[in-house]
Design a protein that fits this description.
By secondary structure, the chain is an alpha+beta fold. The chain is built from 4 helices and 7 strands, in the order βααββββββαα. It has one domain: Alpha-D-Glucose-1,6-Bisphosphate, Chain A, domain 4 (2-Layer Sandwich). It has a 7-stranded antiparallel β-sheet with strand order 1-7-6-5-4-3-2, covered by helices on one side.
């Protein structure tokens, strides 16, 4: 498997302003509403991301909690984080969201899952391979439904 197959990217146009969509992504308490992977259950409110270096925690459907280390941040335009077990270094996968305004009411949103630096833990590798474009598309579709509903 090469690095190209370890980076999954999907895009779609959403009929909402970039700032409104970004709020749904940058506020972890809202993420379970649009998670197309059906992997997230809840996040404590008041963890809204504001900068690189922020860490927010998220409870997963398997009962575990993950810390998400923000590694890219441009308000209203781009955010990326690396998940990790509590108190541990991230194992090497990254979730990225990029928002490109088309005009005041429409935005192209691109979601990327990059596991090119993920270690050789077979369980993590299996889970990463299950993160297909179709599953990422599910998140974008749910995000669009929420953003377009206002």
């Amino acid at each position: 498997m090469n690095d190209q197959t370890r980076v999954v990217t999907v895009s779609r146009e959403i009929a909402a302003p970039a700032a409104e969509i970004f709020e749904l992504i940058a506020d972890p308490s809202k993420q379970p509403q649009w998670d197309g992977m059906d992997n997230l259950t809840e996040a404590v409110a008041s963890q809204r991301v504001h900068d690189v270096g922020d860490v927010f925690s998220m409870k997963l459907t398997n009962g575990f909690t993950r810390e998400n280390h923000v590694v890219e941040f441009v308000e209203g335009r781009r955010i990326a984080w690396r998940p990790a077990e509590i108190g541990k270094e991230p194992p090497g996968h990254l979730w990225r969201w990029k928002l490109d305004p088309i005009d005041d009411r429409r935005t192209t949103v691109t979601q990327t899952y990059d596991w090119s630096q993920l270690g050789d833990d077979e369980m993590r590798q299996k889970r990463a391979r299950e993160t297909t474009p179709e599953r990422l598309r599910g998140s974008l579709d749910r995000l669009a439904d929420l953003a377009e509903a206002g």
